[in-house]
Amino acid sequence: MSYGVHNPQMIVVNGTSQQVITSAKAMGLELVATSVLLLAVLTAPHHAAPLHIGMAVTTGILTIGGQTGGSMNPARSFGPLLISINALSLEKYSNETLYFDVFWKRHWIYWAGPLLGAIVASIVLRLLSPTEKKLHIRIKVQ
Question: What are the beta bridge partners of residue 17?
Fold first, then answer.
């Protein structure tokens, strides 16, 4: 699998096809991994935030990386996609249908999964928080 070219329908390892997953499963995996990451970001104590967030990213990549690429971020998928299109499209894909199938057909997974995951994480956090935490901002007037 080339870096940045995500195809959740087929995983290629050492030149051979290893696993086929549906688009719905790929989106669900991205949704769950993004939810876990966002919950780690929002609930990590200040002194241990780098460890909590780093562990959430590592867990997400190790868990779903082999199936979807472990994006958890639309920008992480879109940037490499643009580079891949420029680098690979001129060499391999002259047929427009094949070009669309390879690069854009399943790219919605990497937008819908993380966005829905963020919504789910915010709802879960709201439901599990016993009280609202209010930010106290002090304004110094001179």
Answer: 12
Q: 113: which residues sit within 8 A by CB, 6+ positions away?
A: 26, 27, 28, 29, 30, 31, 34, 71
Alpha helices (H) along 44-108: 49-68, 74-92, 96-103
* CA pair distance 127, 52, nearest whole angstrom: 21
SS3 94: coil
Whole-prediction pTM value?
0.70
Residue range 9-37, pLDDT digits in tens:
554 444 455 556 788 888 999 999 999 99
Residue 18 CB neighbour total at 10 angstroms: 12
What lies within 8 Å, CB to CB, of 107 at 6+ separation is 6, 77, 78, 81
The amino acid at 106? R
Instruction: Name the one residue in this structure whose structure tokens are 């329908």.
Output: 9
Helix axes 74-92, 96-103, angle to 10 degrees: 150
Is the distance from CB of 93 to CB of 69 less than 8 angstroms? no
